């Protein structure tokens, strides 16, 4: 009987070691101690009473040791079972964390797919802008030639800024803003589509739950989430020319662009624009936006 118990215990130890559950586990070590006590107890009993021929005396002692071994074995089995439960619980926790990580990766991939499609659409809108002007060239006092001059893509922004005098250094703030308002009304079919799409991209970045970053308590880390959003804003900002930023500044001060104003300030969209390129009369408004 003793040999059988020892073999069972040794086999249990072998499988524990093979599964690496015995290494560094407090509960596993405790279970080992308890099982060892259960194994050693009958061995000690045998050694102490093996020469005793008084079976009347040995019988009660054997019953006592038999009764004392059972709690040890039961406790050892319970500890091992509880340790297994904790191990499975930890594995389940790790599995859930990995599942959440994969879910966030999939959501981020989906966001980036949409984001870059929107960015591609922005390029297409800019490149599709076409503005044809008719100009007259006088050969002499009696002869003239008329021809058309196309202003496409970003050349259109350069044209309208120069044409409508919104960078006129001698103009007042109200005159400059009125100049932009007139420009917008005459080119709303081009500028309206451009600014609506740009606003939609920035708003998409600002509100997307796919960019939320969570801390160890599974709560949104506001600071890291904001920095994540800004990383995509910087990609957009890098695509905008100085003339586009100038128009964006003026547009944000109109009724149609007032919803864009807060996002421009929040993400510092005008950060790459130098105040020196603007007329002095509107610089205070510009600096106020940059420093907000």
Order of helices and strands: HHHEEHHHHHHH
The separation of the N and C termini measures: 84 Å
As for the number of domains, it is 2
**Based on the structure, what is the oligomeric state of the protein chains?**
single chain
DSSP summary, beta strand count: 2
Mean pLDDT: 77
**SS strand fraction:** 5-15%
Biggest β-sheet description: 2 strands, antiparallel
Provide the gyration radius in Å. 40 Å
Class from helix and strand fractions: mainly alpha
Low-confidence stretches: 20-24
User: Can you count the helices?
Assistant: 10
Which word captures the global form? elongated
Please give the order of strands in the largest beta sheet.
Answer: 1-2
Helical percentage = over 70%
What is this entry, summarized?
The protein is mostly helical and 292 residues long. The protein is 70% helix and 6% strand.
